[in-house]
Amino acid sequence: MSSFAEKMRQTWEQNILFSVLLELTYSCNLDCVFCYNYKALPGKTLSREQYLALFRELRKMGVLNLIFSGGEPLAHKDFFFLGRQARDMGFVIRIKSNGHALHSVTAKRLKEELDPFIIEISIHGACAETHDRQTRVQGSFDQLIRNLHALKALKLRFQLNSVLTCWNESELAAMYRLAKEFEAPLKFDSQITPKDNGDLSPLELAPSEQGLRNLLHMQLQSTRETQVQKTGSTTQTRTYCGAGTSTIAIDPVGNIYPCVQWRQAIGNVHEQNIRQTWEDNTALTCIRKTNEQAHQNLLAQGGKAAFGSFCPGVADLVSGDASLVYPSVLLRSKLRTEILNSIDMQKVK
Amino acid sequence: MSVTPSTVLQLSSDVRQTRLADEGIVLLQNDGEILVVNEVAIRFIELIDGSTSMDGLTDLLLREYQVERDTLFSDLAEYAQELLSQGVLTETEA
After folding, report:
1. What's the half-sphere exposure (Cβ side, CA atoms, 13 Å) at A289?
2. Residues 6+ apart with CB under 8 A from A260
3. pLDDT at residue B77 above 70?
4. Which of these ranges, A328-332, B32-36, B37-41, has the smallest mean pLDDT?
5. How distant, in Å, are the alpha carbons of A130, A343, B14 from that of A117?
6. 3-state SS class at B52
7. A280 CB contacts (<8 Å, ≥6 apart)?
8. 8 Å CB contact of B16 and A63
9. A189 within 8 A of A32, measured Cβ to Cβ
């Protein structure tokens, strides 16, 4: 019998669609400084009926993970209706939310009606000053903390997600402590991305090299990791990641992308059945080849440290070539190597 | 409890499953456990609907696999017992 990891590799190798992320809406009750959504996206939003037809087809295709994202997914008028339908069809539901609206009544409803496997909640700092500065909504930190207590009381599984910025990089330890208080994992994204329309202004909040070093040090030391921290590829797979090989993302107007970061549309739900998009698609074939090339380019860098910090979608945005290893990956690779070496040295001593 | 021909099973409410190539993935949401099961097992799990008895499930699978009925029932009953103990299945009224 295969292991689950082997099955996941199989999805990449055999182009088996397993996870679909739905950006239900770009509406949001917060206004994060570095939000990558392009709110003026043209097109007609998908209807209830289109979502239901999509869900049915995805289930027939064997898709298990359905991820509701945004914007803020709870801001979509049909969020609960669609969530209930997805649950009844047997999907594993994941929700990416800012948590601001997840007060006890809504959280209880979420548990009863959607029964999500996990809710991924954004946190921007360890204190109100930093969190509210990034969300640009006064009181959002205090509200979030109240809501996290409600989620915990309801035994809803959640993890905290954060983007490392020059504003929160000095609060890393406190953020990890906060997460520990809630017994929730805290996942950092160390790469601020440009907006989906190519606007580079979010990069002004990029962390300093020292901030990045501190984060990597904490992550690597806490996991006592001496090998590749795998969020992306290993040397055993053909492609770098699952983008376009086991996952897709769909925006509110039906554009289909290989992943939420890689904004190269490969079809649109308004125009084409999802199975056709997945199985017979020249654009997707190109995406998969690019993904393979990205993997080769990373392998050519020699060190394994680059793995896990590269994203073809970001590469596409910053350089126009999704297979190109971009400068911040090389920086993270260098820092990781230095930190891993120093950890190894400490072990020897 | 023992699984008999008249036993009716249903999937636990926290179970999610899918077919993946020639095997199946079964997730128990509450404890986050993931099982990888073989082709016959995922077919068996797919057929469990909360109303068909073990006898009925055996008949359905007999149409798809060439095997002695007694052997199939015995294997299914043993497997169902295992899934019951893992919390994947619960027994229900017919």
Report:
1. 6
2. A21, A23, A69, A249, A313
3. yes
4. A328-332
5. 29, 35, 9
6. coil
7. none
8. no
9. no
Q: Which residues, listed in sequence order, are joined to residue A66 by a DSSP beta bridge? A: A20, A93
Question: Would you state the pLDDT for residue A199?
Answer: 87
The complex's ipTM? 0.92
B94 band by pLDDT with thresholds 50, 70 and 90:
low
pLDDT digits (tens, 9 = 90+) for A99-124: 999 999 999 999 999 999 999 999 99
Q: Please name the member of B16, B17, B36 whose beta carbon is closest to the beta carbon of A4.
A: B36
Pairing of β A92-97 and β A118-122: parallel
Which backbone phi and psi does B27 adopt, to 5 degrees?
-110, 130
Query: Structure tokens of A171?
Result: 């609060």
In angstroms, the CA A199 to CA A266 distance is: 21
Nearest Cα residue to A181 out of A95, A123, A110: A123
Q: Are A172 and A201 in contact (CB under 8 A)?
A: no
Taking an 8 Å cut-off on Cβ atoms, the answer to whether B36 and A62 are in contact is no
Q: Which residues contact B9 (CB under 8 A, 6 or more apart)?
A: B3, B48, B50, B54, B57, B80, B84, B89, B90, B91, B92
What residues in A contact B32, CB-CB < 8 Å?
Answer: 117, 157
User: Can you state the percent helix, strand and coil of chain A, rounding each to 5?
Assistant: 45, 10, 45
Q: What one-letter code names the amino acid at A161?
A: N
DSSP label at residue A44? P
Partner-chain contact B20 A91, CB within 8 Å: no
Domains (ranges, CATH) in chain B? 8-86 (3.90.930)
